[in-house]
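Dear support,

I submitted the protein below through the web form. The confirmation email said the job was done, but the results page showed an empty box. After a refresh the structure appeared. I'm attaching both so you can tell me whether what I see now is the final result or a partial one.
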Amino acid sequence: MQLSTTTLSLTVDDVAASRDFFVRHFGYKTTVEADGFASLSHEGPAVDLVFLARGIEVLPPDQRDQHAAGLILAFTVTGLEAEQERLRAEGAPITMPLREDPWGERLFQTKDPNGVVVQLVEWVTPAGDAPESAD
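What the results page shows now:
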């Protein structure tokens, strides 16, 4: 099997609100749109996104009323501080401020209007793992 594209499909209450959030703040472009549906793509290596309205009949009955929850959409970036400031200046809510975990993960989180959690991550070498210099 050879994968050509990865797409994350999320069921939300307000498709337009999620679409607009990802277009404005993360550089996505709308590729296909219909009532209760929006497909977004990105020029870079980011995952494609599809937003479906809760209750939409194209979904199987047991999936129609589910809501995107319990997941974190994580984007690995460089210049994490600048990204946090850019998003804050653009009015995106910073729901978890920048922090650094002991294993070298630096991150912060925002949420789209439907509650989809977006985490921006930058990896650094933890202080205890820095290579020793040869003297």
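Response: this is the final, complete result; the empty box was a page-load delay. The CA atoms of residues 28 and 43 lie 8 Å apart.
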